[in-house]
Amino acid sequence: MMKFEERQFTVDGMTICAKQWGDSGMPAIALHGWLDNAASFDALAQTLPELQLLALDMAGHGLSDHKPASGNYAIWDDLRFVMAVADQMNWPQFVLIGHSRGAIMATLLAGAIPERVSHLICVDGFIPEPEDPAKFPEQLGRYLQDFAKAGRGDKGHPDLAAAVAARRKATPMTEPAARLIVERGSYRDASGRVFWRSDRRLKLASPVKLSFPQLQANMDAIRAPRLLIIADQGFGRWLPKLPEALVSKFELRYIEGEHHCHMDEQAQQIGQWISRFITLDAELGGGASS
């Protein structure tokens, strides 16, 4: 088993925590899904010894700090944290591996600052479903109303097993996968009751959702070779709804399993695909152009 090191970074006065596997090899940053944390990459990291893999706890998740009272969790705001960590690691270019919400972040970042991303790898997600621009006022209204209710407390769970069960009810996944996420993403109070570490504001409506032209413009700006791994019981169920133009430049791989399949036995196959994708591209002299 490859050992990991706990890392901490300071960004805008906040502590951002991470798990790092390897201290040599190609730099890579891994971005987890919504309400997950860096532990979601434990299994996949074991299959990628050629990478110097840094899996972040994004703000409000895992062991990282919450944003200040005036902050929000609009997905594009989190991209500044990723870039700040990359700069502190002195990585001029790096592989981006994202799952779910993290895959959306990775795709946006690869389009916004394409010269920094050498390879884009998305696991069961890569963009949000495009939004009708006419719904902008309605979306903004939901955000404003939700933000006013953000102070409601977490009632907690009697023990870790109950918290794991609640996590599996919210998002279907295996018990071992849910336990990994919950162990890093929760704490016990003096009575032994288990509470979530994640910021409640992560569940609020986004202020804005992106339209198809915005998503397509971002996709067209990406220079890095891109790989999309799709779980048949996860993202694969709504992929057919997306315009072909958004996926046409991805190398596609399909795998049986649910949304968090990269945390289970499928991690071995996913890791092989990622290794082959990066190695073959390097042999062909690929990567993002500067």
Describe this structure in words.
- It is built from eight helices and ten strands.
- The protein is an alpha/beta fold and 290 residues long.
- Helix 3 (101-112) packs across helix 7 and helix 5 (160-170) crosses helix 6 (175-184).
- It is globular, with a radius of gyration of 18 Å.
Features:
30% helix; single chain; 290 residues; two-stranded antiparallel sheet; alpha/beta
- How many strand units? 10
How many helices does DSSP assign?
A: 8
Structural class: alpha/beta
Beta-strand percentage range: 15-25%
Quaternary arrangement of the chains shown? single chain
The parts where pLDDT drops under 50 for at least 5 residues are: none
Which range best describes the helical content: under 10%, 10-25%, 25-40%, 40-55%, 55-70% or over 70%?
25-40%
Mind describing the biggest β-sheet?
8 strands, mixed
Q: Can you lay out the helices and strands and say which pair or pack?
A:
Blueprint: E1 4-11, E2 14-21, E3 26-31, H1 42-45, E4 51-56, H2 79-88, E5 94-99, H3 101-112, E6 117-123, H4 136-147, H5 160-170, H6 175-184, E7 186-188, E8 194-196, H7 212-221, E9 226-231, E10 250-255, H8 267-283
Parallel strand pairs: 3-4, 3-5, 5-6, 6-9, 9-10
Antiparallel strand pairs: 1-2, 2-4, 7-8
